[in-house]
Amino acid sequence: MFSIDTFIGHERMSTEDLLLKIEAAVIDGETEFYINASGQHDIGGPLWNKDGKTLHFEVNNAGQRLGSMCLPNTEILAHGSVSADAGWLNSGGIITIRGDAGDTAGHCAAGGKIYIGGRAGTRTGSLMKHDPLYEEPQLWILNGTGSFSFEFMGGGRAVVCGVGEEHSDSILGERPCVGMVGGVVYVRGNVAGYPDDIVEAALDEEDIAFLTEGMPKFLKAVDREELNERLTDWAQWKKLRPLTFEEHQPKQAPDLRSFRRENWFKDGMFADVAMDDGNVINTVNTGLYRLRVPQWENGKYAAPCEFSCPCGIPTQKRLELIREGKLEEAAKLVLEYTPFPASVCGTLCPNLCMKACTRSTVDESVQIGALGLLSAETPVAAPTEETGKNVAVIGGGVAGLSVAWQLRRKGHSVTVYDDGEQVGGKIEQAIPRFRMPHERLEKELARIESIGVKFVPKTLVDAAKFEELQKNNDAVVVAVGGSRNRCFSNWEGIEHLTMGLEYLKALNRGESPRTGKRVVVLGAGDSGMDVAVSAYKLGAESVVAVCRRRPAASAEELAAFRALGGEVRTGFMLSKITPVGVTAEDGTFIPADQVIVSIGEEPVLDFLPKDKDIRTYNDNWLVPNDEKQIMPGVFAVGDVIKPGLLTDAIGDGIGTAQAVDQYLNNEPITPIEKKPVIPAERLNKAYFQKCHHCNLPAAADEHNRCISCGTCRDCKMCIESCPEKAISRIDLGDGKWEYVSDESKCIGCGICAAVCPCGVWNLTPNPEPINMYRTYDQKH
C-alpha cells in the first residue's frame, strides 16, 4: 500500500503537491493508497490505471471535492466526515463516507455510487443527471439532508433513509426538489415544502427490487449492517418524482393587457405615481425601445502608441494609409508632427510608442521606429500663402526647430538664431556621430530650410540682441535649451572636473578631447552614457559611471556601455574630487585620472531683461504661464522649461507653435487637447496571428500586424456579423468612410462591439427614456 502523511513535523503538504504525488504513483502502477490528509482537496479523481485495475483510496481528514470527477474503477473510503462537494461530477467511481458530508454532496453526479453514512448538507444531489448510454448515478444517505436538496435534478436515484430523523418535519429540509425534471428520490420519513410539479407516490415493484438489492451493499459500505431489517420495511418508504410531460396540464395564458389594467397597476404599489399605457414591450426591440445603442466611435480614443508619444504621432493612421496603398501620404503624415522622423523617431528616440504598443501583448511591437526612416527624404512643399507675421526663435535645437517648422507651415515668416556653427542643437553638437549618420540630420535640416525657415548660426543672443528681436518681430520664442553642464558648487575639487557637454561638443567638431586611461563619469543618464562610450572610443581603459539613484539611461544605452566593459555604480553620494579619483560620502574611493561630469544641463538666461517679472524655477528654468508666455509676445519651449527627451521637446514645440499662432491671430490661446487612451478591454486581439521575431516583416509592411487601436481598419467584420443586417458602410469620398447602424433594424445586441478588433464600436444605454405620462395622455 502506498501511504502518504500530509503532515511532516509542522509542515503541511499543499493540495497541489499531494495530487502530483498521487498522480506520479498511479503512473508508476500503484493501486492501493492510504492517505492521512489534512483538508486537502480533490483526492481521488480523475485517475485511472493504464491496465484497467481498480484504484483503492482510504482517506482520513479529507477536504472539499473528495472524489470529484471520479472515474470508473476508482473506489474511495473516507473515515469520518468530509467537507463540501463530495462526489462532485462523479462519473463512475464508488465513494463511501463513514460520517457526514458537507453541502452539495453529489452535485452534478452523472455516474457511479456515493454512500454517506451520516447526514448530507444543503443542496445535496443538485443537478444530478443521467446519460442513457451509461449507468445512472446513485446517492445513498443514512440520515437526512439540508435544505434545497435535489434542486434541478435531471436523472439518477437518491435514497434518503432518515435514520434518527423520524420526528423531523422534513428529512429533506426546506424546499426540496425545486426545478427537478428527472430521476427519483426515495425517502423514509416526513417530507414537506416540495413544489406542485413534484409527485409523492408509493413504491412499485421495480422500486422495491432496486432498494432490496442496494440496501445491504450501502449498509455494509458505511459499516451499519445492523440497520438492515429496520430499513427494509418498505411500507415506511415513498418516492418523489417530477410530473411527466403528459401529466402537466396546460393552463390558459392570461390576457396580459387585462392583467396589467385590473391587477398589476390598479392596486399595485406604484398605482398612484405611474400610468400604464397598456403597451407590452418585447424583450428584443429596435428603435426607441432598444436597451442599448451602438456608437461608431472612430478616432474618439488615442491608440496607446499615439498616447505615449510626446509628439502625439498617430502611427495607426500612418499604417492605415499604407494598408490603402498610400505610402507617400503615410510618409508625409508624420511630418505634420515632427521635422525629425528619421533622426529622432527612427534613430535616437527610446520609442515609448513601441513600449506601449498593444501588439507587444501578442508577440512583438510594431516597428514604429523603423517606420520613421521611410520619411527621411520625403519632400514638403512651402506654404502657398504668407501671413505677413514674423517670428524669431532663439535656439536651433529640436524644440526651436519644431516650433519653427510648425509656424512656417502655417505661413508665418520664421528665423532661427543659434550660437553654434550649425543649427541642430544637441543632435548636431553633442550627440556622438556613432549613434547616427550625420547626413540623416543634414537632410532633415535642409528640408526645414526648404519650406522657408531661415537659419542664422554663429549668433549669440545677448540682452541688446534680444531687445532688437522683440522690436523687429511679432513674437519671440525662447528655445535655448540646456546649454551648460550642471554641477554643484559645494563639491570639493570641482576645479578637477571635465564638463561632459564640452567634451562631446569637441568630439563632434572633429577634435580629440583629452581622455584619461581611468575615467569616472558623474551621471548615468543617456548623456552620461554618450560620454562614457565616447571615452572608451578615445582610448580609456576603464570607465565607471556613478549616480545617486538608479541609472536614468535607457536599457539599450546601459547594455551598450557594459558591453565595452563599463561599470555602473548606484547610491554613490559624491564628496570630493581629486586629481587621482573621487571619494563618496561613505568613504568609497574610485581611482581616476579624469572625472567628467554629465548630470544634465541647464539654460543660460542672461539675455532676458532683468526688469521684467519673469518667473523661473531654481533660477535656472523658465516657468511660462498657461498661454506658454514668459512676457507678452515672448514664448518658452523645450528644455528651457524642464529637461526631457528629444521627443518631449518636439511635442512641446507643437503646443507652443499653436499658442504663438493663436497669439498672432488675436485668438484665445488654448492648449492642445489630448485624447484619452482607448481602454484595453475594448480591443480584440484574438484575430491576430502570432508572429515570431525571425519572421517580422519590413516596417513598410507592418500594416497587417497593427491592431489599429481606436481607428477603424475598414475590415467590414461588423457588417458581416450583424444578425439584423443593420450596419452599412458609407463612402465619404477622398478615401474616407463611416459605418452607421440603422435604428429601425438594430436590436442593440452588441455583436458589432464584440467582434470589432479595433474597439471602435461601443454600446451605450438608450438615451431616450420612455415618458409614460406623455404616452398615457396621448392615448387617454
Characterise the protein shown here.
A hairpin with a 3-residue loop joins strand 29 (616-617) and strand 30 (621-622). The protein is an alpha/beta fold. The protein contains 21 helices and 35 strands. It starts with a strand and ends with a helix. The chain is elongated, with a radius of gyration of 40 Å.
Q: Which structural class fits the helix and strand makeup?
A: alpha/beta
- Major sheet: order of its strands? 1-4-5-6-7-8-9-10-11-13-12
Overall mean pLDDT: 92
- Work out the number of β strands: 35
Radius of gyration, in angstroms, nearest whole number: 40 Å
Relative strand content: 15-25%
Q: What is the end-to-end distance? A: 85 Å
Poorly predicted parts: 770-780
Number of helical stretches of at least 4 residues: 21
The portion of residues assigned to helices is 10-25%
Sheet with the most strands, sense and barrel status: 11 strands, mixed
Shape: elongated
Question: What is the fold's blueprint, element by element?
Answer:
Elements: E1 2-5, E2 7-8, E3 11-12, H1 15-27, E4 32-36, E5 55-60, E6 74-79, E7 91-98, E8 111-116, E9 138-141, E10 154-160, E11 182-188, E12 198-201, H2 205-221, H3 228-231, E13 237-242, H4 256-264, E14 292-296, H5 304-308, H6 315-323, H7 327-333, H8 341-348, H9 352-356, H10 368-372, E15 390-394, H11 398-409, E16 413-417, H12 425-429, H13 438-450, E17 454-456, H14 463-472, E18 475-478, E19 484-485, E20 497-499, H15 500-508, E21 518-522, H16 526-537, E22 542-546, H17 555-563, E23 567-569, E24 574-578, E25 581-584, E26 589-591, E27 594-597, E28 601-602, E29 616-617, E30 621-622, E31 629-631, E32 634-636, H18 646-664, H19 717-721, E33 727-733, E34 736-741, H20 751-755, E35 761-765, H21 772-779
